[in-house]
Specification:
The complex is a heterotrimer. By secondary structure, chain B is mostly helical. Chain B is built from 14 helices and no strands. The chains are: A alpha+beta, B mainly alpha, C mainly alpha.
């Protein structure tokens, strides 16, 4: 559905994208994941037509789109800070795309009603954006983008400006929305938890390049390189190898290849216990075990224990 | 924001004596200064206008020559205001959104009408369009010349009120409109314009007031042919210099009323423009 | 493409309305000859006119600077009824015709005015003399420093002064050491604009001064004097001087423009 081939873009001396190619399947929910400066927002904006690439091609639904202006691409775009039309009501915001396409008033009214129901903003139609909460504004922005039935929905860090609880609510909500509408959706995030939780496919980016593009499971189980391994989920370095927190065996006595660690903190998260440790060489180590295991070993903060990798990955 | 407001409210309630004294002192200074410099002269003007009675006031205000001068003044000022609305916005747009070599110079030059004495401006417009015009346009001593001279002196108004608003404008909204399918013209008319309209209008109002009251740039050009190129300010000047204090005062009070109306309008505009934020 | 056409429309407008007339200043001087223009500039009455203009400005500018700072502090920092009225009167000179200003003063101090007889009785000449010229010039240049100080103070907020108070500073110390330094660029810009306004004032002075050469004629009135006496070279000579001063003012305005960011 969306293909980007060999896309490059620089801003002055800064290389935002360096020969990036990705493919997004029709009807999928894809995340562009990476730290700031990785180029993910730039790529999204190029797909939307809000930026022009220095090199490379974009194909949307089988048609070349690289030089097509954003007005004609049929994409819906949701901004991190909502970009609400401050001087228009919620209804006018949502109906904007239809209004400028000169649809009959009755049709616009019906569609806006439908969308307001969909995003659960009933009763807020005649308010102004300034009167809505952040979460409500973002739902309005989504409804607005969906109004013209775009082929593709693009979201640029859509939940970045919201507080934690609203963020988790909207994540679930976005997933459900996608299951209802099946619109090809791409969203940008720096939060790997968000990407893993919501998306079918994740494209991990770093410094203008694609590190790996795969399903969350594959990314976690078989990361392509050290960056992906440490960015997606937690990972510990043991010499040349990388070890997941739950792939460490814990013993109370040294045993051959074990390393000595001291427990700094124990965090009980539901059924699991996460331990922050400091290794004999001063490096921090992250450990994860079940509550039962932790109780069996009678782990305490300040305690010295011994760990050994059970599974490890080398690149 | 809320916390701040509450803090200052309680601070006012419990003002120490020195604070209150300070307020009284500065207020006293301000009131005295403004009264002596501004309010008293204005009061004297209004008094003089009605000194010979209301009937005299209406007499002078309805004198054919005065009426013609007022009509011309208002008509030209309106045209000047309109022209500035369009070109002032255009200039502000180009200065904020476009980039080109020499932009700081162009931006600085915009303030020239504020820096240059108006009589010099009038002299130069006369030179450009007068009898010895190098571009062979002979429009001196005509209404066109008045129009052009007023465009000179009012040039900065709309530009300077629109620039900061345009600069602060988040381009996100325009990008959102584009992504929703709006053509560039639609983006400007439906998204940009509503946001910068208060800036345009307050600039237009000040340009209008300035055009109504301008004297220095006009006085050489208009050649003050009564009923043809005589504007209200020139009429008042002539009236006062020929000893017609009452008549001059009468028409002057009208200009005063216009000035106050404009200030009221601009103040109201500011209130109206921020209503979305107070929602 | 559209970008270019907008640019050219804007430049075209500037050229016709602004730069065309400005160019005439240099064109005309060149045509009339620098010699004649120079002799006009060193003429005794012209020199007096410039001296008078500067004298008036040297009184009006400091007065309005002090006023501007005081009224700015009062309006932004203090609570009192009638703020709207104060604001209206401060802004009035921006919207009011200078001729109306001059006339008001003329009526106030004239023979039949409220103050006229008193001053005459005490032998103090106001009209057709320096006091009237100073008064109208102060009137028309009242707003400028205030209008720069007020938004700057609003943006600054009171926290710095409050911090100074908690550290033991008195009101005056806080003002001198904290407030004044933080508004100094706004004040300087305001002073530049006020000075330009004083130097360029014409209409109000025309009404109250009588334009007596060598006595009550300011530089701007001198231009008109030369022009009406058909001395083109003289008129353009004085105009050139005023124009050069204006360019200096423009440079100072650009240098001290308070709000930064992009091109304001």
């Amino acid at each position: 559905m969306i293909t980007a081939t060999h896309v490059s873009k620089r801003f002055g001396d800064f290389v935002a994208l360096d020969d990036v190619s990705i493919e997004v399947a029709t009807g999928s929910l894809t995340a562009l994941l990476g730290p700031s400066g990785s180029g993910k927002s730039t790529l999204l904006r190029i797909i939307a037509g809000l930026e022009r690439p220095d090199a490379g091609e974009i194909v949307l639904a089988g048609e070349a789109a690289t030089s097509v202006p954003p007005q004609e691409r049929g994409v819906g775009f949701v901004f991190q800070h909502y970009a609400a039309f401050k001087h228009m009501t919620v209804r006018d915001n949502i109906g904007f795309a239809l209004k400028i396409r000169k649809r009959p008033r009755a049709e616009i009214r019906a569609r806006v009603d439908e969308l307001i129901e969909l995003v659960q903003l009933r009763g807020f139609g005649h308010r102004f954006p300034a009167q809505l909460s952040g979460g409500q504004r973002q739902r309005m922005a989504l409804a607005r983008a969906l109004a013209a039935e775009p082929k593709v929905l693009l979201l640029d860090e859509p939940f970045g400006a919201l507080d934690a609880r609203v963020r988790t609510e909207l994540r679930t909500w976005l997933r459900r929305l996608h299951e209802e509408t099946h619109t090809t959706t791409v969203f940008v995030t720096h939060d790997q938890e968000e990407a893993m939780e919501v998306a079918d496919n994740v494209v991990v980016m770093n410094r203008g390049r694609v590190e790996q593009a795969a399903s969350p499971r594959v990314l976690y189980d078989t990361p392509a390189n050290a960056f992906v391994m440490s960015f997606v989920g937690r990972a510990n370095r043991f010499g040349e190898s990388w070890v997941r927190p739950h792939d460490l065996e814990v013993t109370l006595e040294p045993n051959g290849s074990t390393r000595e660690v001291q427990i700094d903190r124990l965090v009980h998260v539901g059924h699991e216990v996460r331990a922050e440790l400091t290794r004999d060489d001063g490096e921090p180590v992250s450990l994860q075990l079940t509550r039962d295991e932790a109780e069996r070993l009678e782990l305490q903060p300040g305690q010295i224990v011994y760990v050994r990798p059970v599974r490890q990955t080398v690149f | 924001m809320e916390g701040r407001r509450l803090a200052s409210a309680s601070a006012i309630v419990a003002l120490p004596r020195s604070e209150r004294a300070g307020t009284a002192l500065s207020l006293g200074f301000v009131t005295t200064y403004l009264s002596v410099i501004v309010a008293l002269p204005i009061a004297a003007l209004v008094w003089a206008a009605r000194a010979d009675g209301l009937s005299q006031f209406w007499f002078w205000v309805s004198q054919p020559e005065a009426v013609a001068a007022l009509k011309l003044t208002l008509a030209v000022a309106a045209l000047v205001a309109l022209t500035n609305a369009v070109f002032g916005t255009l200039l502000a747009w180009v200065l904020v959104r476009d980039d080109f070599r020499g932009k700081p110079l162009v931006n600085a030059v915009i303030d020239l009408p504020f820096a240059l004495p108006t009589i010099v401006a009038g002299l130069l417009v006369l030179a450009l369009y007068g009898p010895d015009s190098p571009v062979h346009v002979h429009a001196a001593f005509t209404r066109t010349a008045i129009y052009l001279a007023l465009l000179f002196v009012t040039l900065p108004f709309v530009v300077r009120t629109v620039q900061p608003v345009l600069y602060e404008l988040d381009t996100d909204m325009e990008e959102a409109a584009r992504s929703l399918g709006a053509r560039e013209v639609v983006v400007f008319v439906r998204i940009v314009l509503p946001s910068i309209l208060p800036g345009i209008l307050s600039g237009v109002a000040m340009a209008f007031a300035r055009a109504v009251g301008e004297i220095g740039a006009i006085t050489l050009i208009s050649g003050d042919r009564p009923f043809h190129t005589e504007v209200a300010s020139v009429w008042i000047l002539n009236a006062s210099q020929s000893g017609n204090g009452t008549g001059a005062a009468a028409v002057a009070v009208l200009l005063l009323a216009i000035a106050f109306a404009v200030l009221l309008g601009v103040g109201g505009l500011r209130f109206f423009a921020t209503r979305h934020e107070r929602a | 493409m559209r970008r270019l056409s907008l640019r050219f429309a804007a430049f075209g407008y500037l050229l016709v309305i602004l730069l065309g007339p400005l160019a005439m200043l240099f064109w005309r001087i060149w045509a009339e000859g620098l010699g004649k223009a120079w002799s006009a500039l060193i003429d005794a009455d012209t020199v007096h006119a410039f001296k008078l203009t500067l004298e008036v400005a040297s009184i009006a500018v400091p007065l309005n600077t002090i006023f501007g700072i005081v009224v700015g502090l009062a309006v932004v920092r203090r609570r009192f009824p009638g703020k709207g009225v104060v604001n209206a009167f401060v802004d009035l000179p921006l919207a009011l015709s200078p001729v109306v200003v001059g006339l008001s003063l003329f009526l106030l101090f004239g023979r039949t005015g409220w103050f006229g007889p008193w001053f005459t009785a005490h032998g103090i000449q106001v009209l057709f003399a320096l006091p009237a010229i100073v008064l109208v010039t102060v009137f028309v240049s009242v707003p400028y420093v205030a209008r720069e100080v007020i938004p700057t103070l609003r943006e600054l907020g009171e926290e710095q002064e409050q911090a100074a108070h908690t550290l033991g500073a008195s009101g005056w110390q806080a003002f001198w050491r904290i407030t004044l330094p933080s508004i100094r660029w706004a004040v300087i810009y305001g002073v530049v604009v006020t000075t330009a306004r004083c130097l360029g004032e014409y209409g109000a002075v025309a009404v109250v001064s009588g334009s007596i050469s060598g006595r009550t004629e300011t530089a701007t009135l001198r231009v008109q004097d030369y022009y009406e006496n058909l001395d083109q070279a003289g008129a353009y000579g004085v105009a050139l001087m005023l124009g050069l001063i204006a360019i200096v003012v423009l440079v100072l305005m650009t240098a001290f423009r308070p709000k930064d960011g992009a091109v304001r």
